[in-house]
User: Fold this.
Amino acid sequence: MSTKLAVSPKGMKFAPARRVNQALTARVERRALVWMAEHAPRWVTSDRLTLLGLGAQVGAGACYALARLPRFDRRALLLVVLCIGLNWLGDSLDGTLARVRRQERPRYGFYVDHMVDVFGAVALICGLACSGLLHWQTAMAMLVAFLVLAAESYLATHTLSRFELSQGLFGPTEIRLLLIAGNLELLRSPFATVFGHRFLLFDLGGVIAAAGMLAMAIAVTVRHTAQLYREESQDR
Assistant:
């Protein structure tokens, strides 16, 4: 994202936040996205890619619901993998395409992209809650943890002018890869045995994911609070 100031119709200046992505796949992904943006046909636009990403995430949620236990349609899980891939394409390429074509709309892009992320996550996790592949309580814990982490990220972007796309080595792409791996394991069996006890595979993964997201939210909240306190104490 460009760091130049954007001016609203009322003259209010808006400085796009610096993007920070230190995830495992970030460097390779960045090069791949720039290459695709440079070779994309003209009819491919950022708005169409954003809609593709949202539609694919909603589609993934619908496919999870179609795979519902006990009937358990494995074909729906394969469609989930396809939808996750299309979601990555739309969600990751839309901003890169705008920057490569120098068609940035900083305020519009930031707002729309992140509201799409929220609605898409709600659709995906609600689909999981309806699937029977995990208990709805686990799905709701995942949703709450995601929304808390997302809220912290958006507030930090506004107050620190730094948009952290990743937490540690994990970013959205890594989460998608883990979800794909989980789906492929589901094709074998929706259950897992741990210490002699049988659990739903996605219950285990969901509890770990929810706990991890909440832990990250707490850790970065403490770090950012301390940073803001130091910076504003020095300004007085």
